[in-house]
């Protein structure tokens, strides 16, 4: 059994209790305009090009078996994404690391070995492993195998999810997950469709389902604060009402950061025309709105 991941981050402290290892799974069914990890959207490996590191030696052009790297008249690289199959030959030849292949296949056994390296840290800090992405449930069989291995080893597991997962998959994996870091982005169906590409009805009903299944205390809501999109009064009020009804206890606010450069390096379109982070004043107002309904609010910078 193999999965595709694009990063393993050790010593993480913001994605669940204690010191954690964050595993970034590649592939996501949503297309959020503001996605902070665009390298996690596509499941296939992708090339990132860091122009400022490039020596213009053209070794990559000569190495590519698919003629997918084209140099224009200004000596600028154009990667033909339609031709590139993510083989990584060019990045292995590049002398300055200007090309980076994002995404690699990994077996369950290899990943579990990587996770096990920090068992002592998990034990000492009350930490564990957090699966994030991308959308971890997008690779359900692989995720299940790794979760089961963690359970065998008595390692705490968290899954950071959009909640856009079939009920069948959720039911089959939920008992092996200790903590759900569950996004809510937009409460109105029409806005959710515009800004993420999918309906929110499954997402909201999955939160209800988890609560009704006795998992209320194992859910932390994550709310991305995106200026003019998610931070509107009607959206914040709507989400607050939804959470109050479910009697959830904790929410994390994740302020927007501009990641335009990441999209450019991946050759992906970036739809955001707002580039500033939310103001401290607006974050404080939103924090207070959620505190008013009795939620513990954690604000990340
Ligand atoms: S990853 Fe492979 S196919 Fe893609 S540009 Fe590099 S060498 Fe060519
Ligand atoms: S091999 Fe690397 S440094 Fe040389 S031209 Fe290609 S991207 Fe630039």
Notes on the structure:
This protein has 301 residues and is an alpha/beta fold. The chain has 2 domains: 2-43 and 104-299, Aldolase class I (TIM Barrel), CATH 3.20.20; 46-102, Alpha-Beta Plaits, CATH 3.30.70. Helix content is 34%, strand content 23%. The chain has 11 helices and 13 strands. It has helices at residues 59-63, 89-93, 108-116, 119-125, 140-152, 167-173, 189-196, 201-215, 233-246, 260-266, 280-292, and strands spanning 2-12, 20-25, 46-49, 69-71, 77-79, 99-102, 104-107, 128-133, 156-161, 179-183, 219-225, 250-255, 296-299. The strands form 3 sheets. Strands 7-1-2-8-9-10-11-12-13 form a 9-stranded mixed beta sheet. The longest helix has 15 residues, at 201-215. One iron/sulfur cluster is lined by residues 47, 63-64, 66, 68-69, 79, 84-90.
Task: Name a few traits of the molecule.
2 domains; nine-stranded mixed β-sheet; two-stranded antiparallel ribbon; Alpha-Beta Plaits; TIM Barrel; binds iron/sulfur cluster; alpha/beta; 13 strands
